Inverse folding.
């Protein structure tokens, strides 16, 4: 797992060998210790280079080992042995040096990186901190503020920035190992005392207390309730205030707390889930590894409203040719300007040239005739979308993949408007489409494996986390969201306020509670959808019957607000009030509270006390229960798919892993018991009836989430 050789006569070369990313598993750590001994005892060797096999230095500790009993030498000791070596040690960084990989490099006396290499300490993203000395060495090397930035965000830097920060000594465009060997030769025999980072004093900015206080506030705001970023700040604070050996003790202490926390488990689950969803499968047996994507050179976008504009930007940023079609001249002009601005801003942020020339605009649908793939993003209206699909079928060349950005409409109905339904697939982007990471790829019963593979591949090119899901009303994300919203409305009817509900959800970790979020996205969006489902018309009568639609309990509260023109932030009033239309700071609205009182009086509802626990259980367990139904029906292939959708598309707090992981953490038996309780209390809400898969899982002894698939006997079902 680590190989030793002697090169150029006097340089020992230790190569990490653990594909695909040379993670520091026990055998690799052991290998380093043994090879180091060899190099140091070889009298011909004057200096040593450490590199990684296959152009990758090291992706860090082996995350798969985290749940297991520790074996092999601890990384912190391996790195101390490297730093203590009496011959110059040089890290040759190619590909990545992340987490423990960068910590290993920081233990070396010199670091040289290839210009394309990426470096970082992303442990915080896994709910941990860089506990192999990273929190103590990095601030000593590059100063407290820069170290805080890298350690608390986990962001990667490319070699040029690493050089500027002082993380590496040299950057090369040539063969990194050769350059490292040259460097090693040039420093052979030189004194090493001034090269051991652990011996450096940590420069202390004069406003140290204020700096840490500010940073603490920042990380708490950024990830509400997440403990790793807080521990990262505390560890760097130890570097700034304590001698190295005490700092290392503090780092270890903080790591132990994080390591045993549910948050680290959740975030590591998410790391593997994010990778697992790319290995998609469908009920018909199509799979990621047997389905070849079609070649895509030119993509067309139809409809340049908010979604179409974002999609166009995201496509152009990948370097693909894009034809953007909007039949309304005024809208087309506005879109051109908006898309160009977004591209220019994005390019400026990323330090690259804007790709404006990749897009051609047209008011004429004929312009898409030679596109390889079309994404329809017109208004969310089935009749209109059907008409567009008929046009696409007539205009496009044979074999063109036809995608719809619908957020809930039946993809199969759209497919039936074409002669080649196998080429039709949903690509459900999330607003703003050039920013949000999630893409739901929706396959219907007739969608071909190649169409799924093509949409998944395009999503990947666009930098999205793509999840393949079956076709049903609302797919995965919006289908579950509907119940979450509905429970929130019911809670208002029963005595809660938007402030109470939002506070409970924000304390749970959501950046915004359900009502603040609805105000931001616009209440009219859901209203239009409900009207389309024949639900959104308000009933003038009072009592319970006025709140029953299609045989189930229904709350018209959102519809009533829309009828008053209260669409949320854009109109300055919604569930909250804002200082002006478009204002962003929500404040409590006395009008809303008296409106709720009269509504309850009209319908004979008596307000009761509702606590945070009930808010969480009602909103989250309703949604989780639907998640189990989605799994049972085979709409999602596994719980990981649902969780990835919720974290990347619906701002579910990452450190809680996703709704299905959360259910596993709470305990399936408890979720079942609470659902039974609420179902008895609300018999007119059929979806609170616990799903049979949940019952089966509990009856099977509540296996851990990784084993749920074994219990989902019938893995998939059709729409
Ligand atoms: C005392 C504690 C000290 C240190 C703590 C740590 O070091 S924690 C680990 C810190 N490192 C990271 O967080 C890096 C995680 N990995 C990545 O960001 C990416 O994988 C990487 C290295 C940038 C490569 O990206 P790429 O897109 O090329 O590949 P992909 O992500 O699909 O990964 C390929 C397969 O490798 C597995 N993998 C990656 N990193 C690790 C790791 N550190 N440990 C174990 N396994 C790792 C990944 O799961 C993929 O596996 P596959 O089975 O093919 O899905």
């Amino acid at each position: 797992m680590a190989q030793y050789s002697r090169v150029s006569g006097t340089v020992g070369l230790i190569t990490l060998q653990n594909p695909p990313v040379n993670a520091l598993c026990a055998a690799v750590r052991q290998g380093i210790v043994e090879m180091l001994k060899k190099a140091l005892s070889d009298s011909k060797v004057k200096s040593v280079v450490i590199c990684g096999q296959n152009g990758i230095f090291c992706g860090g500790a082996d995350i798969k080992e985290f749940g297991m009993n520790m074996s092999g030498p601890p990384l912190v000791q391996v790195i101390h042995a490297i730093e203590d070596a009496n011959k110059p040690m040089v890290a040759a960084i190619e590909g990545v040096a992340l987490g423990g990989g960068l910590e290993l490099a920081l233990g070396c006396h010199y670091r040289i990186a290839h210009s394309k290499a990426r470096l970082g300490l992303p442990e915080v993203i896994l709910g941990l901190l860089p506990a192999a000395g990273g929190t103590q060495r990095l601030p000593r090397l590059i100063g407290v503020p820069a170290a805080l930035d890298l350690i608390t965000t986990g962001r990667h830097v490319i070699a040029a920035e690493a050089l500027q920060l002082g993380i590496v000594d040299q950057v090369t465009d040539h063969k990194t190992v050769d350059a490292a060997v040259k460097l090693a030769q040039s420093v052979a025999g030189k004194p090493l005392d001034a090269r051991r980072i652990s011996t450096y004093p940590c420069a202390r900015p004069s406003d140290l207390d204020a700096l840490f206080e500010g940073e603490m506030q920042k990380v708490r705001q950024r990830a509400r309730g997440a403990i790793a970023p807080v521990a990262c700040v505390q560890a760097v604070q130890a570097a700034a205030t304590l001698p190295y050996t005490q700092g290392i003790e503090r780092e270890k202490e903080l790591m132990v707390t994080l390591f045993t926390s549910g948050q680290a488990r959740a975030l590591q689950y998410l790391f593997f889930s994010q990778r697992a969803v790319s290995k998609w499968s469908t009920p018909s047996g199509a799979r990621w590894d047997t389905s070849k994507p079609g070649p895509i050179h030119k993509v067309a976008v139809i409809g340049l409203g908010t979604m179409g504009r974002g999609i166009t930007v995201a496509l152009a940023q990948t370097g693909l040719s894009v034809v953007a079609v909007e039949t309304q001249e005024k809208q087309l002009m506005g879109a051109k300007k908006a898309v160009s601005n977004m591209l220019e801003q994005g390019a400026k942020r990323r330090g690259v040239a804007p790709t404006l020339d990749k897009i051609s605009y047209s008011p004429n649908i004929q312009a898409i005739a030679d596109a390889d793939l079309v994404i329809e993003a017109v208004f969310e209206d089935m009749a209109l979308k059907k008409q567009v699909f008929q046009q696409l079928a007539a205009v496009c060349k044979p074999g063109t993949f036809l995608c719809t950005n619908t957020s809930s409409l039946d993809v199969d109905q759209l497919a039936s408007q074409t002669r080649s339904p196998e080429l039709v697939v949903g690509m459900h982007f999330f607003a703003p489409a050039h920013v949000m990471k999630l893409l739901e790829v929706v396959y219907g019963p007739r969608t071909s494996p190649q169409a799924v593979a093509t949409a998944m591949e395009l999503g990947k090119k666009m930098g999205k986390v793509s999840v393949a899901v079956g076709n049903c009303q609302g797919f995965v994300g919006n289908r579950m969201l509907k119940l979450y919203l509905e429970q929130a409305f019911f809670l208002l009817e029963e005595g809660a306020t938007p402030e109470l509900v939002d506070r409970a959800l924000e304390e749970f970790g959501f950046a915004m509670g359900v009502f603040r979020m609805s105000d931001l996205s616009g209440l009219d969006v859901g209203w239009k959808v409900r009207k389309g489902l024949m639900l959104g018309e308000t009933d003038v009568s009072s009592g319970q019957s006025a709140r029953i639609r299609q045989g189930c309990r229904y709350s018209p509260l959102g519809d009533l607000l829309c009828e008053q023109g209260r669409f949320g932030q854009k109109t300055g009033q919604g569930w909250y009030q804002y200082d002006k239309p478009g204002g962003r700071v929500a404040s409590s609205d006395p009008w809303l509270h008296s409106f709720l009182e009269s509504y309850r009086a009209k319908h004979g509802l008596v307000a009761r006390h509702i606590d945070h626990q009930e808010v969480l259980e009602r909103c989250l367990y309703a949604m989780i229960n639907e998640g189990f139904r989605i799994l049972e029906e085979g709409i999602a292939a596994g719980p990981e798919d649902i969780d990835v959708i919720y974290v990347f598309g619906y701002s579910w707090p990452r450190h809680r892993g996703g709704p299905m992981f959360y259910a596993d953490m709470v305990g399936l038996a408890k979720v079942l018991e609470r659902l039974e309780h609420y179902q008895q209390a609300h018999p007119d809400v059929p979806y609170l009836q616990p799903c049979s898969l949940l019952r089966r899982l509990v009856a099977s002894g509540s296996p851990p989430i990784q084993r749920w698939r074994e219990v989902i006997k019938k893995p998939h079902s059709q729409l």
Q: What stands out?
A: The pocket of LFKQWZQV is lined by residues 20-21, 23, 59-64, 75, 96, 98-100, 122-123, 126, 128, 131-132, 275 (CB under 6 Å).
